[in-house]
Every structure is written in C-alpha cells, then in structure tokens.
Amino acid sequence: MGQLNLKQKLWSAGLIVLFFVLWELFCLASGMSDLVLPRPSQVMETMIRRFPVLWPHILQTLSTTMIGFVLGVALGVLLGAVIGVSKVAYDTAYPLLIGFSSIPKVAVVPIFVLWFGSGSVPAVLTALSICFFPIVVNIATGLATTEPELEDVLKALGASKFDILWNVGLPRTMPFFFASLKVAVSYAFVGAVLSETVASNRGIGNVMMTASSNFDVPLVFAGLFILAFLGVVLYLAFSLIEGRITGWATRKNDLVAT
User: Fold this and answer.
1) Is 137 within 8 Å of 90 (Cβ atoms)?
2) Residues in contact with 229: Cβ distance below 8 Å, sequence separation at least 6, in sequence order
3) Per residue in 144-197, pLDDT tens?
C-alpha cells in the first residue's frame, strides 16, 4: 500500500511538472509575447530576482489573510453552533447569511474603506466576510445531522443540551469543520488580495495592481504563483491536521487505489 501511494504521488507530481513544461514549450513554439503570457521560467526568474522586494508584501498579505481567517473561523463556529441547535436561529439568521454571502465582496470593500480608511483593516474584514460562510454552513450541517435517537438516549441519561453539544455534537462536526477550513482559507486569500488591489499600498494584491499598470506581466504572474503556493501550503497543513484529528471519519483509500 505504501509503495502504491508513493507511486500515485509521483504520478501527480509528474503531471504537475508536465503542465509547466508544456506551458513553457507552448510559449517558445508560438513566440508568445511576455505581455500576454510569460513563460514559467521567466516568472520564476522574476520571483527570485525581486524576492527581497516581494518579501514584505508576502508577509503583509499572509498576516492580514490569517488574521481575517482566524476571526472568520471563530465567528463561523459560533454562528454555526447557534444555527445548528436552534430552529428559530436557523429560520432567522440563515436567510440573512445567504443574502450577505451573495453580495459581491468587491462592493463591500469601499464601505470598509469609508469606515476604517485604507490599509490592513479593510483587508482583514474582507477576508473575514468572505471566509466565514462555509464555516457556518458546515458546522450547522454537522450539528443538524446528529441522530435524534442519540439525543433522546443522552437526555434520558440526564445529559443537558450543553453536554450533548459539547460531547457529541461538536466532535461529530469535525469532518465538516475541517472540510470547510480548507475551502475558507482559499476564500480568505481572495478577500485579502481583493482589498489590497483597491485600498492598500502594501501586499501582493497591490504589487500585482502596480505591475499590471506598468505592463510588468511576469511580476503579475509571480504574484499569482506566490498566492497559489501559499494557498497550497495552508491547504496541506489543514489536511495533515485533519488526518490527525478526524482520521476516524476518513475512509481508507483501498478502493480508490485499486
């Protein structure tokens, strides 16, 4: 099984490398202009050459994203728990949350700028507002799928609603919770970078906007590569934590491997 999993990972890595090789060859064969589509080698060269300049912006984007993400997770867990255990809260808050989630966040950024000025605060709030909804939905769904028969048995044994929520409801939501974390962290990057392109003079979003106005397309793609790398790293980190905590809820890959 270990050798089979290693073989699968090597195949996946090989296909990823093949994608960038084909990209490179396509640009060379077609004579594609750098202003349209730079080659991956050019993008990597730009990242390495300008890394000392990019590093403070990377830290800025990463910090605002993680602050907004952590706040979004805290808010999402709280609202999801309330909505999941209360029918009144579900009927009242869920339509409001859906309506707020349907609003394009690019329309919300100017409001945050009007309230708090330009800088890091709008980026944090935008990341929070765009990432908390998946947390709410998955926590509420996990709590709503708790079997009524199990709750009746626990109540008969003298358990309070808080005991049922803490000892049964929340542990059963862990697979839903970690699934939503992996989605929410990507959304948080989208929100933070979106705000940086509009209302900040620091961050990868601002670098990409400035590079675009200067027709420095390799630098724009360098920003995209950096954001993609950060997103993948955080996704893998949460996947590892998920495997440690919710391994009991994960099916083995035997069937998939065969």
Assistant:
1) no
2) none
3) 776 666 666 666 767 666 666 666 767 777 888 888 888 888 888 888 898 888
